[in-house]
Every structure is written in structure tokens, then in C-alpha cells.
Fold each of these.
Amino acid sequence: MGRKLKRICQNGHTFFKSSDCPTCPTCEKLKEPASGFLSNLSNPARNALLFHGIDTVEKLSKYSEKVILKIHGIGKASLPAFKSALEESGLAFRSNDKNNNSNY
Ligand SMILES: [Zn+2]
């Protein structure tokens, strides 16, 4: 029963390891070949989406453009890639409704 050490990787993920192995499980996951639209994104944008559990265009479409842009690591430069990925699947960003207290 080794003592688990709290570590923070260079990408800011917090994880616990009982060994000296500094491998971050989140980073390991991110190293796997990205599928679908994630493969067309820059690393920061992809990591930011994955951090929020957004790994498919379907999930992306549940968010409005406004909310997506609020995610740290996602800039306006990522929007064209998101939009074309959504369009390819016949989807679109959620519209910015006024009562959007349900989805954020
Ligand atoms: Zn990491």
C-alpha cells in the first residue's frame, strides 16, 4: 500500500500516484488518437473540450457558441473548426436563448 502522492502535471491536471511514475492519466487519455472532430482541433482546444466531457459533436451541439467561448483554452480561432464539424453532422450550436439556465 504505497502512499499516494498528489501531483499536478504540466497541463494542470491533478492526479494521484503511488509510484514515482509521473504519468498523468488524463494526459495519457489525451494522447490516444482523437476521433472524429477532435482530431481536427488544436491541442489546447481539444484538451479544453475533453476537460468538460465534450468528446463528440453531439455533445458540442448542446452548448451555445457563447458558452463554448467561455471555456478556458477555447478561442474564436477554434470556432470555424467547431462549426464545420457540426455542419458535417447536420448539427449546430445551441441557440443563445434567453432562459439558458438549464444547460450551464
Ligand atoms: Zn495531465
Amino acid sequence: MSYQAPLRDMRFVLHELFDVSAHCELLGNGLDRELIDGVLDEAARYTGEVVAPLNRNSDEEGCRLQDGAVTTPQGFRDAYRQFVDNGWASMNGPVEFGGQGFPQLVSASFHEMLMASSLSFRIYSGLTEGAVLALHKHGSEALKADYLSKMVSGEWTGTMCLTEPQAGTDLALLRTKAEPQADGSYKVSGNKIFISGGEQDLTDNIVHLVLARLPDAPAGVKGISLLLVPKFVANADGSLAAKNALSCGAIEHKMGIKGASTCVMNFDGATGWLIGEANQGLACMFTMMNDARFQVGLQGLAIAEAAFQGGLRYARERLQSRGLAGAVQPDKAADPIIVHPDVRRMLLTQKTLTEGSRMLAAYCARQLDLEHGHPDAAARKAAGKRAALLIPIVKAFFTDMGQEVASLGVQLYGGHGFIREWGMEQLMRDSRITQLYEGTNGIQALDLIRRKLLGDGGAELSALQAEFSALCDQQLDRPALRGLAQTVQARLGEWRELSSEVIAASQRDVQEIGAMSVDFLAYSSYVLLAGLWLQAAARAQDALDAGTGETAFYQAKLHSAEFFVRRVLPRASGHREALLGGAACLMAMPEDSFAL
Ligand SMILES: Cc1cc2nc3c(=O)[nH]c(=O)nc-3n(C[C@H](O)[C@H](O)[C@H](O)COP(=O)(O)OP(=O)(O)OC[C@H]3O[C@@H](n4cnc5c(N)ncnc54)[C@H](O)[C@@H]3O)c2cc1C
């Protein structure tokens, strides 16, 4: 399956919807349109020509573990070397440690391309970037001096070691221990499972960020500390000491992302150092979690784009049956399946969910950039709140959407979708993990209501709704867009009412939070995407009114917006009704009655 970066759509989102040049000027990073476009072109070449060709083989070959060493699939080492040598690894890294300081609004496009080309390949570098954030923000100067530059450049990777056999979602159950030593270091002992990239053959060193308990730590999440535990301790002169007391005990055999090693890691008194204060590990880890959750959201988007490209290609080539209203291509044995309304329904569902999510990803990326880089402190705080509200939506909705779009990819190919050689079944298998790791999607939905909505009495969500409503108002007077704008405006009003009902129900009965959460997240996501589709339609109409050429591209945006609002947005009604169905019907049945 070949992949081509959707450059035209990415440029539409970056330049026409979000004015990335003005964004970069505000952040003062010296990037202009020409440079950004040049980077995207080169990113498309690297991902399409170097990474994408490895994807299928990496799925078949997988990773191998022998004598504690992991061998990654053929081609990964060379592609990773290019990733480091050509500066892709350091794109977002802090400038003072050799990074290039690219804003997320730009790098998200590259990361989407990379993940669409090979999700497995991206896993190794993805967590390194989160680890860099946590170390940069919370690490001591000495630790930063020894480890950060090489992690920023990609010469060393980073991992995130949270999960243990008995502690998945509930990190309060962690048992890994860290014993203080006279020299200020710690000896870390315990077993971690499911550690992405815990062992690999791409880099000389791997820097593990490990959650563990100090001897006198309070029980629960308030007693968790974050430690840096390298595979090889770095000497002051940059050379590496003998191997630390840690090892990869096994690698998992999985449903998908088979080219990414998922490791059981044993720490046997390994030397490590605290990052941040003792017992503040979870707070430090949250620094990287927001980034990691945004990145996992992008994984859903990337898989969706790849599945859409495959589905579209096949729908144009595959000849089966005649169109309902008669032959469309009478010179052929049958019409291509793209003439059939149901095939178009699948393709347009894929296209509008994918492009809609790309717009929301950019909206969220902009907030993340402003949170860290806006010159004004109040604006940084405001952007941080907006990003925090959006992160669970981006993580959960995009990954559910990615799985749906991948499944539609299989469906579009008919029986061939089930067969390996076409690539659709791999996308479906690869994307399934995105709904599970970095906090399952159920946990994201709980986070949305419990921390983000109830946390401030709905104030931030209300501000977001008001912003979307004001943008919608601007389109009500334009004859070509009035119908769409009215429908979106009505939904935004319904969303406001529903949010108040969700808050009231949560206060009445705490079980309602868990009962409503998944449907509320989905409802909110569809309305947000509808608001963004209206904006896309408005920009497309502006371009058509101005006669700037590319009529087909902008007309397609108008068609897509119409389809999304008429045929996808109505799903919100189902989620609304379901959540209003209440918690009682979930909780009333005694546990014994589930199987009688
Ligand atoms: C391929 C792969 C890579 C991974 N990479 C890493 C990694 O690099 N580092 C790392 O630390 N971990 C990693 N993980 C672990 C992953 O993050 C966890 O599997 C995930 O957080 C869920 O934990 P669990 O598997 O123990 O499920 P559980 O926590 O046991 O959850 C089981 C089910 O119960 C639900 N549930 C649990 N608690 C609640 C609740 N309070 N309310 C409602 N529902 C609830 C969950 O949503 C889920 O549906 C990886 C896992 C895999 C499979």
C-alpha cells in the first residue's frame, strides 16, 4: 500500500484556516511560509520514500529477542539513522539543547505523515519527545547536561515505564521501588510490562523514565516518584559506563504494531536519579502525558488518512455492477464502485472524519504552542486550559475515528480488505492499540467530565462553545452557507444545554459521570468537527468568491462540509439520547445476573 502525504489539505489547514505564518511570528521562531512549505515537501519525501516502504514487511517480520537484545525489522535502522541525521528527531526539541523549536502546529503535519507511513517505526521516537519534555521541565541541571542533548538529537531514545502487571489504569497500585544511595542516586527494582521501545537496536543508549516508590512514600498516587534510569549511565566526558542492572525479559506478541518492540523490563537494583521532587512523579509524568496523548490522537488521524487513500484508490479501480441510474462507464465491463451511493457514503465518511480531525488537531496544536510560547502570561494560561480541555477529545475521538475509518477501508475492498496484501487489515490491527494505551478511551472520557468539565464548573467548555458560536454567527448572512450555519448553530445551542444537564446529573449522582462520559465525549467531538467544517466551508467560499483558482479543491470542501453536517453530525443525536438514558439502567442489574 503506498502513501502520499495529503500536502494540499495540510496547507489548507495550516495557511488558510490557521494562518501559521502569523502564529510563528507571534511565537518569534523565525519560520515563514516558504520555509514551512519546504519542510513539508521534504517530510513528504522522507516518509513516503524511506519509511512507508518498510511498513508491510515490518508487520510480517516483527521484532526478535535473543539474549536480551531486540532486533527491529529490516530497514528500521537505516531509516532511523536518516531520521536523526536529517534533523527530524530534533524538530520540536528545546533550542538550548540542540533542538529546532518547531511549533506543534507545523510538526503535527510531519508526525501525521510519519505515523501514516509506519506507526510501528514512529513508536520509537514518539515517546522520546515526551521524555524530553518531562526531563527538560523537571530534571536537575546535571541530569539535563548528561542526557538531554542526545535525546533531543535522537541519538538516544526515551521510554515511559509506568505499567506493571497489577497496575495499569490504576497507578496507585505501583510496586517498583527506588532505594536512596549515599551518593544521591537510587537503586531501582521492579518489573514493568508493555514498555514501548524498552529495548531496541536503533540507538546506543535508552533512557527510561520510571515511576517508582521511595521507601517512606505515602500509599497511593501521592507516593509515586519519577526516576531517570539509563540503559548505560553517561560519564561526564560523554562516554558510556558499563550496562546498568536492567534487562528486557520478553517481548509481547501482539495484534498490531508488530514492528514496535513492546517489552517486559526488569530493573534489578538499577542506578537511577530522581526527576523533580520525591513523591511528585505523577505530576512530572503529566507533563509528558499531554504531549503523548496528543501524539496518540495524531496516530488515529494518520491511520485514517492511510485507510482513506487506500479505499479511494480501490473504489476508482474496482469494476463491479452498473450504477443505479444506468451505466456510467459503458465502455467498461462494469462501473467502478465509486459510482454507488453506499460506496460514496463510506468514502465521504472517511474523508470528512479525517479532514475534520486534521482541523481539530491543528486547533489543539496551536493551543499547545501558545501555552508554552505566547509572550503574555495570561494568554499562556488561557491556552493551557483550552488545550487541557481538548486533549482527551483529541486522544479518544481521533483514535475511535481511526479505527472506524480503517474498518471502512476494509469494507471498501470487499473480501480483499480481509486479505493481507492490500494493507487494509494491517491498518485496522495497527490502529486498535491507539484506543487502549496512554489511558484507555474510557478513561479519557472520564477525564473530560470529571477533571475538565466539573473541574471549573463548565467555564472553559462554555468559552469554547461561545467562540465557535461567534464564528458560526459570521456565516449566517451568507446565502451559500446559511443552511449549514443554521444547523451548526442549533447544535451548538443543544451542546450548551446538554453540558449543563451533564453537570447537574453528575452532581445528583456520581455514577452518572461514568455512565455519560463516553457519549458526551463523542457528542462534543461531532459538534466541534461540524463547527470546523463550517469554517472550512467559509474559507472555501471566500476563495471561490475571490476567483483564486483551484475551483475543484474548494468545491470539494463545500461538498464535504455539506455531507458532514447532513450525514455524520446526526450521530450526535444518538449519543445525546443515550447519555440522557441515565445510569440506573447500567447499575441496577446485580452482577450475578450478567450470566445466569
Ligand atoms: C502495545 C502496548 C504498548 C504500551 N506501551 C506502554 C508504555 O510504553 N509504557 C507504559 O507504561 N505502558 C504502556 N502500555 C500499557 C497501557 O498504557 C495500558 O495497557 C493501559 O493504560 C491500560 O491498562 P491495563 O492494560 O492494565 O488495563 P486495565 O486498567 O486493567 O483496564 C481494563 C478495562 O477496564 C477499564 N477501566 C479500568 N479502570 C477504570 C475506571 N476507573 N473507570 C472506568 N473504566 C475503567 C479500562 O478502560 C479497560 O477497558 C502499552 C500497552 C500496549 C498493549
